[in-house]
Design brief:
Blueprint lengths: L11 H11 L2 E3 L2 E7 L2 E8 L7 E7 L3 H12 L3 H9 L29 H14 L3 H15 L5 E2 L10 E2 L3 E5 L6 H31 L3 H6 L9 E3 L3 H9 L5 E5 L2 H10 L5 H15 L3 E5 L3 E5 L4 E7 L1 H10 L10 E4 L14 H13 L5 E2 L3 E2 L3 E2 L1 H21 L4 H7 L2 H16 L8 E2 L1 H26 L6 H14 L3 E3 H4 L4 H4 L3 H13 L3 E3 L9 E4 L2 H5 L1 H24 L1
Parallel strand pairs: 7-12, 7-13, 8-9, 9-12, 16-17
Antiparallel strand pairs: 1-2, 2-3, 3-4, 5-6, 10-11, 14-15, 18-20, 19-20
Length: about 575
């Protein structure tokens, strides 16, 4: 009988893979002192028709049948297939690679082709003059236009659900350092709306003066002048309620620093029930609709339509702290975050009069009236059949996005969950901006729906990813996720357990069992880990996708060096002490 060299034996690749997975020492076809389910075991593996993994001559605390079954569950592959893959671990592996936890998300530049022409030209040309990011100017202009469009103009997104309607109401947050010129961008975009608001005040002041000049009898038959507004700035809830009583078409809430707006909900209400009430007010302001005010000693009053668009700026550090501490009621997720690029030197050269055209647009939007059907009946906007198909495609994709992010980043998942309504609102804004008459057409065409869809997924969604991963943090426990990933790379782990978490750095050791397991689940969703199947339902062991050691080999060396330096610093400090 001829004896083959051991490495040519058909089962040797399997032994090697078992060694990589369970450790121990390879001795011929024996794998000795392997750690399987927390116990040391010697095993000898043979194959059998049908692909069942058969263990023989085992030594340790497991019987042959139990261990064979466990290995079969663990690998979930026929023996022949597994042996083939053992020689080439990545052969026929169609899994996506593990996500790079240290890579910063990229924010795409503004694509003006998707925008209404007036907005695209205003954003790009004004950006050249100012040296600002055109993305910020475009989104600030869209928020301004949304505020100018009367709330009486609505869109019905679903063909067969007349109960759900949306108005043109957008919330936009410009995120960046002081060099990104947030305030100049906001001022440039809102200048036409501020001018309209000033005109409305002058009209009110004249009407109020005329009313005050009336005698007592004349006042009984005259209407008290109402001060309709188009903007609010740095206001309290009580002051906003008074303004919104007489502003049924909505206003634009301007916040030069959104950190102050978020903070005021805690500052003036103690962070308790009053805070929740304030947040509820602003959540309703995003949705629109009637709002009842009940005050002790002053009775009840009604705001016919509590509606606010929102435009503000914020720096990364404050919003990171706010996002970490705030309750997840969806207030933050209603904002479109735009990550601004650093400002540059502006130009002082002749340019087309895009500012005048943009100002005329805002004026026209303010006086738009509801669309008519058949030239007689006022109706909500509807999608054309082709645009309705785009809507359905968007709704399905939004559901997939929200579901996919839930296990990794709940805040981003909640933001994606708002995309249906946001898409409808953006379509309304696009349609009204591109309308040339006093009443927009009652049907939104496929071109508008397609451009809004592309703008949502190719521009707004990447900015949201950058905001919720780079600014807020990729995972709910970002520091623990990164610490665990770094520990895996530094230690070269092929398996990791909850016990390993207790051996990690201070961040990992501070986690309780539930928190540690949640981190593992997130790393699973990010492609780093796979739960190890077990006969026991309480198994808490995960296998590492070994591709992380190839993809992040440089990071692994950096992590080893970082940990080495940390130990040296601590050791030297203790010596001095």
């Amino acid at each position: 009988m001829t004896t083959l060299p051991i490495k040519q034996h058909k089962h040797y690749p399997l032994i090697e893979t078992l060694h990589a997975r369970y450790g121990g020492e390879v001795d011929g076809l024996w794998l000795k002192a392997a750690t399987i389910k927390g116990q040391l075991t010697d095993l000898y593996v043979t194959g059998k028709e049908g692909g069942e993994i058969v263990v023989s001559k085992t030594e340790g605390n497991y019987n042959t049948k139990e261990l064979s079954l466990y290995l079969g569950i663990d690998f979930d592959l026929p023996l022949a297939t597994f042996a083939k893959r053992a020689a080439d671990p990545h052969a026929n592996d169609n899994r996506p690679p593990p996500i790079d936890l240290w890579q910063r998300a990229k924010c795409p530049p503004l694509t003006v082709e998707y925008l209404p022409e007036v907005i695209g030209e205003f954003a790009s040309i004004q950006a050249d003059l100012m040296g600002a990011d055109p993305a910020g100017l475009a989104m600030a202009a869209l928020a301004t236009c949304a505020a100018a469009i009367p709330d009486s103009i609505e869109i019905q997104p679903k063909e067969h659900d007349p109960s759900w309607r949306e108005s043109a109401r957008l919330w936009v947050a410009l995120v960046g350092l002081p060099s990104t010129m947030k305030s100049p961008i906001i001022n440039a975009a809102t200048r036409p709306l501020k001018a309209l608001d000033k005109t409305l005040y002058q009209q009110f002041a004249e009407a109020k003066a005329a009313y005050d000049d009336l005698d007592k009898d004349a006042k009984k038959s005259a209407s008290v002048p109402r001060h309709t507004r188009l903007r609010l700035e740095d206001t309290t809830i009580e002051a906003a309620q008074e303004v919104l009583k007489d502003s049924p078409d909505g206003v634009l809430l301007l916040q030069d620093e959104l950190s102050g707006w978020f903070g005021s909900m805690e500052k003036y209400s103690g962070g308790g029930r009053g805070s929740a009430k304030d947040r509820g007010f602003w959540l309703q302001a995003f949705n629109g609709g009637p709002y009842t005010i009940n005050r002790v000693g002053r009775g009840a009053s009604m705001i016919p339509n509590l509606s606010c668009s929102l435009l503000g700026g914020i720096q990364p550090e404050p919003i990171r702290a706010i996002a970490k501490e705030m309750q997840d009621d969806g207030l933050l997720q209603r904002l479109f975050p735009i990550i601004l690029r650093a400002g540059k030197l502006g130009k002082d050269v002749p340019m087309p009069d895009v500012v005048g055209e943009y100002g005329a647009l805002v004026d026209r939007l303010h006086v738009l009236r509801k669309p008519l059907r058949g030239g007689m009946q006022e109706v909500p906007l509807r999608f054309s059949p082709a645009a309705q198909r785009v809507w359905q495609e968007v709704a399905e994709r939004n559901h997939d996005l929200a579901t996919a992010w839930e296990s990794v980043n709940v805040k981003l998942a909640a933001h994606c969950g708002k995309f249906n309504g946001m898409f409808a609102r953006l379509c309304l804004v696009w349609h009204c901006i591109e309308s040339k008459s006093a009443r927009p057409a009652s049907v939104i065409n496929e071109d508008v729906a397609t451009r809004v869809r592309d703008f949502l997924y190719e521009f707004l969604y990447p900015h949201a990813i950058a905001f919720y991963t780079d600014v807020v943090g990729l995972a709910e426990r970002q520091d623990a996720v990164l610490a665990t990933a770094g520990y895996i790379l530094a230690k070269g782990l092929h398996r990791i357990t909850l016990r390993d978490m207790a051996r990690g750095d201070s961040i990992m050791r501070a986690l309780d069992v539930t928190q540690a397991e949640a981190v593992m689940v997130q790393l699973d969703a990010l492609g780093w880990l796979t739960p190890v199947p077990s006969l026991r339902r309480d198994s808490r062991e995960w296998s590492v996708d070994t591709r992380v050691f190839e993809i992040y080999s440089e990071r692994a060396e950096e992590e080893k060096e970082r940990r080495k330096k940390t130990r040296e610093i601590i050791r030297d400090a203790l010596k001095v002490a």
